[in-house]
């Protein structure tokens, strides 16, 4: 018999609108498989688990795993798009806001690429790409 507390933890992934990272709480794919094996190992042999319910849980797990992969690919695409857009800003006039909230205006001299995203080098200042407010040709 499937433990209701275990099956409810696995069925959280049924909501496709839930973020992929929290769809199974903090369970990864290995933890989920261990949970399924534990359910099978400790089930009552006189009342075995419903095969349809197990298939549904497996399908939900596959769906969550696919959503996680899709989110990772989407994140990579956004990063590539930001990289391309930032590189195209070299030599252009920009209005931006520094980390301290001060307005900054100048020509983008270079672009630095970091794990957190591209940084625009404007004179002696370095500003995150997302903080550019206006772009003009020089």
Write up this protein.
Helix content is 42%, strand content 26%. The chain is α+β, with helices and mostly antiparallel strands and 138 residues long. The chain has a five-stranded antiparallel beta sheet.
Blueprint (SSEs and pairs):
Elements: H1 4-10, E1 23-26, H2 29-41, H3 51-88, E2 93-97, E3 103-114, E4 117-122, E5 125-128, E6 132-136
Can I get a quick summary?
The chain is of the alpha+beta class.
Give the distance, in angstroms, between the N- and C-terminal Cα atoms: 71 Å
**Proportion of residues in β-strands:** 25-35%
Helical percentage: 40-55%
Describe the largest sheet: 5 strands, antiparallel
Q: Which class do the helix and strand fractions yield? A: alpha+beta
Q: How are strands sequenced across the largest beta sheet?
A: 5-4-3-2-6
Gyration radius, rounded:
24 Å
Task: Indicate the overall shape.
Answer: rod-shaped
Oligomer: single chain
**Overall pLDDT:** 79
The total count of strands amounts to 6
Q: Uncertain segments of ≥5 residues (pLDDT<50)?
A: 1-22
Count of alpha and pi helical runs:
3
Order of helices and strands: HEHHEEEEE
Tags for this entry?
single chain, 138 residues, five-stranded antiparallel β-sheet, 3 helices, 42% helix, disordered N terminus
């Amino acid at each position: 018999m499937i433990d209701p507390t275990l099956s409810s933890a696995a069925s959280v992934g049924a909501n496709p609108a839930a973020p992929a990272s929290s769809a199974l709480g903090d369970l990864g794919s290995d933890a989920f498989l261990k949970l399924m094996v534990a359910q099978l190992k400790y089930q009552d042999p006189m009342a075995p688990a419903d095969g349809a319910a197990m298939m549904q849980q497996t399908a939900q797990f596959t769906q969550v795993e696919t959503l996680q992969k899709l989110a990772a690919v989407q994140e990579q695409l956004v990063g590539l798009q930001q990289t391309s857009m930032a590189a195209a800003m070299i030599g252009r006039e920009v209005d931006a806001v520094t980390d301290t909230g001060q307005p900054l205006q100048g020509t983008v001299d270079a672009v630095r690429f970091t794990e957190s995203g591209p940084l625009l080098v404007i004179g002696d200042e370095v500003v995150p790409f997302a903080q550019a407010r206006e772009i003009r040709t020089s």
